[in-house]
User: Which sequence fits this backbone?
């Protein structure tokens, strides 16, 4: 980590209930003092208002946003609506959206743009599959994903949010990228951003996601280009998420 303030985001995915969220939030708020990282909790849409009402410290994020602004799009939620409900951040381009909802690089980029237009901060995810890694295509895949984003929102737009490197093979598998593997990719992503705007890539926060746990967080976050984490499974337990936030607060 560097002089960039660490960012740690919980991605609850499709988990939670009003009762379990309330318990999580009380535990988190009670122990939050002393943590210096920026903490964001990304919950299912229906719980965002509950988070906004109860999360007096920390920020609220959604896990997706519509690519359209308004209209006949049944089931979609616009960036303006998220902002209206007090949301600060939104995850875009998570590999589960790319895989199960067929989101292309172009759709992901459009969603990031919609988020920015509404005043939300997009946390843009990129990542390669195991097959792509084994075929030696990791950097080509990531570079194409990042290029689509930069083409639409530019470095300035990306700087208003953040970038998350999430190797698909490490998500929910218990198989984390080594700190060296992740650092290598983060440095390459930063170099690509740097080409688009000299100097400002230093300010970009690039977080790592994929089986981050209290036991491996410190080593990952100690890398010079890893500025925090996007935490799935381990974020469901408030104590584990707090421990990961503490590892990013040193
Ligand atoms: P995981 O998920 O921490 O459960 O691997 C990370 C993510 O998908 O954002």
Assistant:
């Amino acid at each position: 980590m560097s002089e960039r303030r660490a960012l740690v985001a919980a991605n609850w995915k499709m988990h939670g209930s009003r009762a379990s969220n309330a318990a999580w939030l009380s535990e988190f708020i009670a122990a939050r003092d002393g943590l210096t990282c920026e903490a964001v909790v990304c919950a299912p849409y229906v719980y965002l208002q509950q988070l906004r009402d109860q999360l007096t410290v920390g920020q609220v994020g959604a896990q997706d946003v519509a690519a359209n602004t308004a209209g006949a799009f049944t089931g979609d939620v616009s960036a303006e609506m998220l902002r209206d409900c007090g949301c600060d951040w939104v995850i875009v381009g998570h590999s589960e959206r790319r895989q199960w909802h067929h989101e292309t690089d172009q759709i992901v980029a459009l969603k990031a743009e919609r988020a920015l237009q509404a005043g939300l901060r997009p946390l843009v995810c990129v990542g390669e599959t195991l097959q792509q890694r084994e075929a030696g295509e990791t950097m080509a895949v990531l570079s194409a994903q990042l290029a689509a984003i930069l083409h639409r929102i530019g470095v300035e737009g990306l700087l208003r949010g953040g970038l998350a490197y999430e190797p698909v093979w490490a998500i929910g598998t218990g198989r984390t990228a080594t700190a060296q593997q992740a650092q290598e990719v983060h440095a390459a992503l930063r170099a690509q951003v740097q080409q688009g705007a000299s100097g400002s890539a230093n300010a970009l926060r690039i977080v790592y996601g994929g089986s981050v746990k209290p036991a491996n967080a410190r080593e990952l976050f100690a890398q010079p280009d890893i500025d925090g984490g996007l935490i799935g499974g381990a974020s469901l337990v408030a104590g584990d998420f707090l421990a990961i936030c503490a590892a990013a607060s040193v």
